[in-house]
Amino acid sequence: MHSVLRAGLVSLSVLGSVAVLAEERLIADFEGSDYAGWVATGTAFGSGPAHGTLPEQAPVTGFRGQGLVNTYLGGDKPIGTLTSPEIELNHRYLSFLIGGGAEEGRTCVNVLVDGQVVRSATGREDETLSTLTFDLGDYAGKKARIQIVDDVTGGWGHILADHFVLSDTAATPPYFKQPLDTETLYEESYRPQFHFTAQKGWLNDPNGLVFFGGEYHLFFQHNPKGREWGNMTWGHAVSTNLLEWNQLEHALHPDALGTMFSGSAVVDWKNTGGFQTGKEPALVALYTAAGGTSDESKGKPFTQGLAFSNDRGRTWKKYDKNPVLGNIGDGDRDPKVFWHEPSKHWVMPLYIGEKDPSNLDKNGKPKTRNVCHFYTSTDLKQWTFASKFAEELYECPGFVELPVDRGTKPSKWVLWGASGEYWVGRFDGKSFTAETPKRKGDFGSNAYAAQAFDNLPDQRVILINWMQGGKYPSMPFNQQMGFPVELSLQSSAEGPRLVKWPISEIRQLFTSVLHEELPLNFPAGKRALSGTNAELADLEFEFIPGSATTVAFDLRGNRFEWNAVSQELSAFGRKVPAPIGNRNLGRRSEFRRPWGPDYEPWEKSVRLRFLIDRTSIELFVNGGTAAASFCFVPKVAPGNTLIVEGGELTRSRVTLRELKSAWKY
Ligand code: FRU
Q: Which atom in ligand 1 lies closest to the alpha carbon of residue 396?
């Protein structure tokens, strides 16, 4: 195989204007009959490249041309290495295709400089190869070797690789850190920088959100053994400011009653459960033991369990008489317990899949109706059925009391399910009566299973959701949490509505503020914000549309488009209501002038706020009266641009705050 030099082939457009010419150099494409100077050891590589799928292997796709490196030669068992000749690093990026096993350091592609592994990536337990880029800028001018390793004999004990190219532009955002290298953990290419993620492995619902002893606790649905859902365990992190999280030992592990599904945590101030051993109250967690989801719990139903901690959540003991609530319906789960002071008892909203004998499926079996039951208890151990909320509600009930119009009207209760749809109404300590129809709580694609904190030190009600469904190719972790938002209720013509607004702590992450009043009558075709390449940003934009028909933002390669006719903002195939507003709706801007009057919303404007992280964007319209959550996989060299089309914006202003990472200070 020869190194071929190809020049001037790739042109990359930055912000639609500047063209950058790049050069690339093909290092190896494995199209020949032998490895052309690459040296194989062991037996996994054979004498030359494979031509696609090998015997007994699931179909291999995604390679270039006819040949590739495929070590499924005789199955997973054989091992070995394949090492390139010395390569001069005269371009910054090395891009290649990779697939196969995911064991770090054992089924991988390494780059060696002076005999040391400086970059390493594995496959993703996938027979489809995908592109990966290493940034080798630190080693410019040095000599390196590429080494393909198969050191695993069991399941997924093979590696696939093809088409190694050195170039001046990256084919994907560079994946340049070793996963789970503790020095560089949290800096990976797709790691959100101010949204919580697990160090490694899968994450879903936030669980047990509670404040105690100066710390916010965030437990979370976690698979400690892999990047996909399974082996549900309560992961655990703490923070003193809701921004910087410190991941601790896992709190609740699967047992004979099941794996650990979602639930909540409370501080038992009055020691009603009798679990307290020292001077401080015990933390008590109520969770679902998902019977039948593990070998150990085969044949068991879903029940509700209790665990307690007397050391600020550092270690947990399960109650020896678990379950505290036996099985009721189908897949009962997600208890969200709180203390109701007027009734002097604990309340547990719980999701139940009820079999409905009056509604049969085509096989004559009763269909499941998804509902929320309320149970009460005086000691957290014995629970009594109190009521059932009649409407359809699926998974993870959330239930909080909120002031209306900043406390100028009597407070109301809000009940929601995992999708975020909510009702506002009254609660008498036992049953909830809705006073509004069901309303949408999030207009994006990725908000799910939101939970509110218990026992907060101030009057706020703070919520965190799981940003369900994001993609994080080749990362050691999978899935992120939403940024914490403060909830409030605001009167509207249709009754009280939920308002969500990012917690003001976010200011601690601001590193710079750019505030610009854009020229009056900002014309169509004109762009603003160009060059603000901020990867992490809190961006507010307010405009009085005038004759403009479309106001669009390109935020890191993602288009958000406001349409003057529908008064909606479209993004990622979703539509978010964004009416020309009433300035009194929603929350005020987070922008504070160092001098002069505070930032008051204009009459008849649209107010947008975007929290932009490396792999997510959260949108808050008109002071948080509509919210939308989105996840994305970043593209190369995206910027942030405003584009006005079809007419002029009468008036507009922008505030862009760059944020620093919350993982390191
Ligand atoms: C919601 C959910 C919960 C369940 C948990 C299991 O995302 O399905 O109902 O407790 O996830 O991980």
A: 9
